[in-house]
Amino acid sequence: MNELTINLDSRSKKPLYEQIYDYIKSDIQNGRIPYGEKLPSTRALAKHLEVSRSTVELAYEQLLSEGYIESAPYRGFFVAQIDELYQLKKEEKKSERKIEKKKVYQYDFTPNGVDLNSFPYNVWRKLSKDILMDDRTELFRTGDPQGEYGFRSAISNYLYQARGVDCTPDQVLIGAGSDYILMLLGMILGTEHMIAFEDPTYKQAYRVIHTLGYETVPVAMDRHGMKIQDLESTGADIAYVTPSHQYPTGIVMPIGRRMELLKWAYEKDGRYIIEDDYDSEFRYKGKPIPALQGYDAEDKVIYLGTFSKSIAPAIRLSYMVLPKDILKAYRKKGSFVNSTVSKVDQKIVQHFIEEGYYERHLNKTRALYKNRHDVLIEALKPLGDICEISGEHAGVHILLTFKNGQKERNLIEKAKKADIRVYGLSDYRIRKDEKEKATILLGYANMREEDIKEAVAILNQCWRK
Amino acid sequence: MNELTINLDSRSKKPLYEQIYDYIKSDIQNGRIPYGEKLPSTRALAKHLEVSRSTVELAYEQLLSEGYIESAPYRGFFVAQIDELYQLKKEEKKSERKIEKKKVYQYDFTPNGVDLNSFPYNVWRKLSKDILMDDRTELFRTGDPQGEYGFRSAISNYLYQARGVDCTPDQVLIGAGSDYILMLLGMILGTEHMIAFEDPTYKQAYRVIHTLGYETVPVAMDRHGMKIQDLESTGADIAYVTPSHQYPTGIVMPIGRRMELLKWAYEKDGRYIIEDDYDSEFRYKGKPIPALQGYDAEDKVIYLGTFSKSIAPAIRLSYMVLPKDILKAYRKKGSFVNSTVSKVDQKIVQHFIEEGYYERHLNKTRALYKNRHDVLIEALKPLGDICEISGEHAGVHILLTFKNGQKERNLIEKAKKADIRVYGLSDYRIRKDEKEKATILLGYANMREEDIKEAVAILNQCWRK
After folding, report:
1. Would residue A11 count as lying in a domain?
2. What are phi and psi of A71, to 5 degrees?
3. d(CA B405, nearest CA chain A) in Å
4. Is A256 a member of any domain?
5. Do the Cβ atoms of B177 and A119 come within 8 Å?
6. Are both A341 and A239 inside the same structural domain?
7. Which of A61, A239, A288, B38 has the greatest number of beta carbons closer than 10 A?
8. CA B349 to chain CA centroid, nearest Å
9. Do A128 and B133 make contact, defined as CB atoms within 8 angstroms?
10. Which CATH number do you get for residue A33?
11. Shared domain check, A213 and A139
């Protein structure tokens, strides 16, 4: 081939070399210039198109680097052999985005709510600004895979004071949310384990662990929490528990049961307890219940905590405290995984804790939630003949267990008709049991006091129908 | 027991109820008050200690809720049965923090460097401030597990224009870093796959995938990249490739090889290609090489990208583009996993892209890296008799292959003695092969031009010794 006529548009935004490149590429793709065909020399084509030789060279180089043509020393440029080029044609893809119309309820007693009006926006903005001002390049460099040491240190101090957790900053691992923390733990432990769950349980963790490929087993609870004898009989080697405030029943595991659980872990090598301390910050009567980890004398407890509940769900910041053996395994199998939390966020929360904002924020939300809790308990009094309250004085939801034989789904349906969303305990059970009494969860963290009163009055009416 | 003498300190910061609680708890723990012992009534103890009855009640309630005592209706409070309390004593833990003294070199040719002096701090700060000003509560609510739609939309537009990637925002998944993205992909695909890697390869991804439990297999390369015949014979069903700029060799997979690779994937159900497009932004000659994903007609390519290379390592923001089948699997098995990236960060980068800052930043760093690249190539000319350069004109490192039979580790050692850090290609190989020619990687993204000149002059001397 010695001629190649291309209509160049010198007023186009597209550079001339790119127009030449596009033209030849599409001719090769369409088969108009076949395999093996020699292209005109750069000198000849430049002359023919009345452009500079370097323009043509640039076009040829691009074709070369993408592999459409090949160069043979002293002979020139030839079209490369490319199979299956006809496959290049693709149908246009259309976005399949479904606009999901989620029903919005007038009142929503979600147990996962967080009050965001009390969030200290100004403090957050100030900390964020100061940090971006100070650290410059250091802040954007690769960070410590385990989380920044200063931040881990702030967390271990906080955990010691507030939760009785006994650890050094070395044992703390930072991650972007509790789901990720479990994924990382899965990578460290491997999935050759059987993990026992309280039933009912925190389903999100259960799903993550199940999807990671672990064998899981539900263990029944009595009024003290997970039954250790039942746990023993499952053959599980890891127990996932929420001892300070069982999710969702609100049971506090008493010291006696805690000791039994620890004893279970001590009895065999390789047994561990995962203590998920997800919302221990919120207790409205007396002091917080200390963490199980603080009683562990043989490094058997993997402690999980999060700032998503206590600061805001969009703060993707959770952590775990590893016992010695697992820390060793982490250093071997997981410490090469880069951190999932930006240094900026780590610094903000570190300062938030160290400068006392976190404690103040906790006190503020605790007072707020306590008022809502009290209003809810008071508003529920007229329902005393049809249901019993449990799980009060802590957390951000209570449970109503019905005495009158109504079905859970009917109660939810009746509430729904009155534009109120309530949640059934069945959703948290691993083993469904039709014989269990209907139990409804009412969360109040995100409900105004007036709304609580109004909504409960309506529920009282519609649940009696 | 009818008396219980406790020395209360009314000037202590610790509330009186807590002093009573602490005293009784430690007496139970030490066995001074044995199991079954009846505690004094709240009335009697209050009188005895000269405190209000509610103070004692509060102390008892705390002991009750932690399970140290139990109440029997009409009879009073008794010490609960707690096994193994002697185990409570723990030795004090000492921080095992080792202050790792990493050798700091005068010149470090790391191939993973990023220039952070050119980072647009002011823009970042402004965007961050504006976003924290605007959105308030919405910004801190739970986000879309897949990533915010607006951000995914910005990414899919950018990918189409800059990389020829053909996707809708539905197919885009946001995650906190490339390691996490691979962990999430592992959760979606399950680990019952054999993944083929180019050899040498990007070891970080290899390690993550290996640790997740996948079977992995190295496949040899020729000058066009992964050999498809070798791939075919491995029995792998997933191929992990870096076609636009092979890491670390810098090979651009030509269109012909790309078509062969796609054909391999089309031939059997369940075969997929993972295209890691980690640093395609940096090309100093001609246009960027379009992504393989854009040629894929049968939804076989899982496309991975990141902002860690192009913005800053501490920006924990990567993404993947899923083909239809895998997207379905994600919706079933992975979409319940909460997002690992804060909404604030997603918004910042979304605006960074949409307001043109990203393109400007890329142009600026590309120009900067090109200069450093050119200075390095020029400085290396005197070494032409002992080594050959490859992998130039793109990315942020080049390779030097030695003709004079020197050993790689000797070259690295000689450089080290001159306080210069260079990297050996062997570190990137899955199969070690002593017969391979010594090849050194020189990264220049984080080196000043003067330093490049000085360091190369020193290398030229010490490598000849």
Report:
1. no
2. -110, 140
3. 28
4. yes
5. no
6. yes
7. A239
8. 17
9. no
10. 1.10.10.10
11. yes
Q: Do A65 and B285 touch (CB under 8 A)?
A: yes
Instruction: Give a three-class secondary structure readout of B164-228.
Output: CCCCCHHHEEEECCHHHHHHHHHHHHCCCCEEEEECCCCHHHHHHHHHCCCEEEEECEECCEECH
Closest Cβ opposite residue B314 in set A140, A179, A290? A140
Q: How many domains does chain A have?
A: 3
pLDDT, tens only, B403-452 = 988 999 999 999 999 999 999 999 999 998 778 899 999 999 999 999 99
Read out DSSP for A257-277?
Answer: HHHHHHHHHHHSTT-EEEEE-
pTM as predicted? 0.87
Residue B348: closest CA among A376, A345, A387: A345
Q: How far apart are CA B42 and CA A144, in angstroms?
A: 53
Q: How many residues does chain B have?
A: 465
CA distance B315 to B98: 27
Range of the domain at A435: 107-114+360-462
> Do residues A274 and A345 both lie within one domain?
yes
Nearest to B286 among A65, A176, A337 (CB): A65
| Partner-chain residue, chosen from A85, A121, A289, that has the shortest CB–CB distance to B136 | A121
Geometric angle at alpha carbon A23, from A17 and A25, rounded to 5°:
100
Mean pLDDT by 10-residue block, N- to C-terminus, for chain A (465 residues)?
77 88 87 86 89 90 87 87 58 50 86 86 89 78 92 94 92 96 95 95 94 95 95 97 93 92 95 92 83 94 92 89 95 93 93 92 91 96 95 92 91 96 95 87 95 97 91
Q: Is B65's CB within 8 Å of A337's CB?
A: no
In a domain, A207, yes or no: yes
DSSP conformational letter for B341: S
